[in-house]
Amino acid sequence: MQKGTLLMDSSTIDPSVSQEIATKAEELGASFVDSPVSGGVNAAKDRLLTFMVGGKESAFAEAKVYLDMMGKNVIHCGAVGTGQAAKICNNMLLAISMIGTSEAMNLGIKLGLDAKMLAHILNVSSGRCWSSEIYNPVPGVKEGVPSSNDYKGGFGTALMTKDLGLAQNAAINTKSPTPLGSLCLHLYRIMCNTGFAEKDFSSAFKFLQEMENRNFP
């Protein structure tokens, strides 16, 4: 590796691992930033991604030139590892909101409400969130999202489970209570063990629909 090389890691991993990599890179005369990404497949196609970047100011400035080509929001979170910290917090909240949206939509449908009408009501009311408006988990409510393609593509349930595990490890290490995050991890682990691992994480809706017909641990 040449001195002065910039290393960027956009995977979602434990912040401590990013810090270890940064230390090794510095020993070799290179610089490192953790730059996990959020936004999904459609945002990637439209170059509207959000990058959460951890690293020195000089390394961030260099990385931003490249990340600006792919994203709309490139945010410097602080030292190495803080990008990962922001990402696991974001994904924990995303999982919670997806489970909540799936529960609300499933309940409403069982109460006789039209799915598209209910989604519209949620999205002009206080229940509105990214999971209900942009990435609705009910098939047929929104075009161009995994729920309308048999939950193919998108962000896999196994990956969401991995990120929720990272969030729970961080919560334990910092003694931060995350009861809903813990419950979501439990639910997504069950999904992984019951045939949903390779499906998009919005398949939580389908999982809930099937729960009444299955025996779960």
UniProtKB/TrEMBL annotation:
Gene Ontology cellular-component terms listed: mitochondrion
Domain 3-hydroxyisobutyrate dehydrogenase-like NAD-binding spans what residues?
Answer: 81-207
Q: Pfam families this protein is in?
A: NAD_binding_11, NAD_binding_2
Domain 6-phosphogluconate dehydrogenase NADP-binding residues, every copy: 1-78
Its annotated pathway reads:
Amino-acid degradation; L-valine degradation
What reaction does this catalyse? 3-hydroxy-2-methylpropanoate + NAD(+) = 2-methyl-3-oxopropanoate + NADH + H(+)
**Enzyme Commission number(s) from the entry:** 1.1.1.31
Q: Which keywords does the record carry?
A: Branched-chain amino acid catabolism, NAD, Oxidoreductase
- Highest rank taxon of the organism: Eukaryota
Q: Which NCBIfam families match?
A: HIBADH
| Identification of the protein by name | 3-hydroxyisobutyrate dehydrogenase
Q: Which organism is it from?
A: Acanthosepion pharaonis (Pharaoh cuttlefish)
